[in-house]
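Amino acid chain:
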Amino acid sequence: MSNDSKSPAPLNLSRWQAAPGLLMLVGAVLSVFGAFASPKEFGFSWLFAFIFYYTIAMGALFMVLVHHLTDAGWSVGIRRFCEHLASLLGWPLAVMFLPVAVLAPKIYSWMSVPASDHLIAAKAPVFTHVGFYVTSAVFLAILWFLSSRLASLSLAQDQTGEAKFTHKMRFHAGWGIVAFALTLTFSAALWVKALQYQWYSAMYGVYFFGSSVWIGLATIYVLTVILSGRAI
C-alpha cells in the first residue's frame, strides 16, 4: 500500500472522444463487406463477438444480483459499473443478435439436418427453426427485463433515497438469480454448444458461468483503472 496521501489526477481522455465512433464506423463498413464476401464465416465471427459481450454483461448482472442478495458492502463501489455493463442485455445485445438470427441456418449445422435424426429429435421442440427463434427471444426478454428493472430501481433510489427501492431490488434479485442461472445455462447450450450438436457436456453451463463472471470482473477492473487513473 502506498503512503502517498495524494491521489493521481484522473486520466484526460477528452482527445479520444471521437475514437469510439470512428472505430464503430470502420467496423460497420468491414462487417457489411464481410457479410457479403463470406456469409458463413461472417456468421461465426459475429457469433463470437456477440458471445464475448454477452458474457461480460452476464458476469456484471451476476455481480448486481449477488450485491442485492447478500446486502454486501464491498461491492458498492463497483455496483454502478456492473449495472451499466448489465444494461447491455437490453436493446444493444438484442440488436447485436439479429445477424445471428438471420445467419443461423449457416452457423448451426443442425438446422440443415433432417428432423428424423435421433440427436435432433431428442432435443425437439427447441432444436427446430421456430424453437430456436422463440427460445432465443424468451432468453433476451427475461434478461432485458431483469437488468433494466434493477437499473431503473437503483437510479430511482438515488433520487429519493427511499428504502422501498432496496426491498424491491432484493425481491427482483431473489427470482432473478434463478432466472439468471437457467437462462445462462440454456442460452450457452443453444447458442454455443449447439455448434456441435452431437457433443454432450453436463458441465458446460458451469464452465460458461465461470467464464462470464471472470471476464465481467476483469472488465470492471479495467474500467476502474482507466477512470480512476490508478490500479486498485
